User: Fold this.
Amino acid sequence: MDQSHLEAFIAVCQTLNFTTAAKHLHISQSAVTARIRALEQNVGKRLFDRDNRTVSLTRSGVAFLPYAERMLQLIEESKISLSEQYREHIVMSGPGAVWHYRYLNRILEFRNKHPHVAVKFLSYIDPGYMIRDLLLDGTVSLAIKVDPPNHPSISKRLLFEDEIILVSANEAFECSEVDFSAQTYCHIDWGNPFTEWFVSLVEPGFIPALQTDHSSTMLTMLLNQSVFGFLPRSIADPFLQSNKLYQIPLSVELPILKGYACYLTENREQSHVRLALELLGVDANSS
Assistant:
């Protein structure tokens, strides 16, 4: 399947406009149309419904999109694999907060120790997709996952445990019962068991006034004294020690997140998996 056809398909998916997609790809609109037509002939399905005003994905187009994304990713990874510039390459995925606050220094140290190993780490990927597809088809060597699924083909190694605590930059913050419906509460879903634990604290159907999925944005708002909210202790600790943040006591037991390194069991002895485990500080020889 032609790479240019896949790129045109994804560009149209992102813009829902053939003219805009053409500008993005630096080709003519007629070229985009021709590539989409060729792709539709290749897969045997119409991928877009389009008229003079609107473009929308058909059911077949929706179903084909994740496969197109995977095929392009595999093409890019194959280029790295075939490159003679590096002896080995590893691709890792996981939450952005984990890379930034827990493993960033290790990544830089690893690069200095292994100059002939190319390292790529991904963060903005849906965790379910990361396990279901990227890990299983070999695009990713190792994935860091909180609450990973049990899968017969995947091995997992415990990396860390992290308590989730409620914090504020306001030292005088006092309350007998925290009001999570307050306009100053900002929510991040840190994944299970935090998700289930938090649901047990609020009313059914609760919707927070403010919510984000980006830990750095959350931290910035916390330090600006704009909000209060939950953070993993590993992120909060430096700011607790410098009195820039303060822990808000709760009368319930706090949830503990567990992070796991996940990889294909059949690849356990492969160098890219062993190198990825080394980067994370895990002994590849231990069980």
About this structure: The CA atoms of residues 22 and 31 lie 8 Å apart.
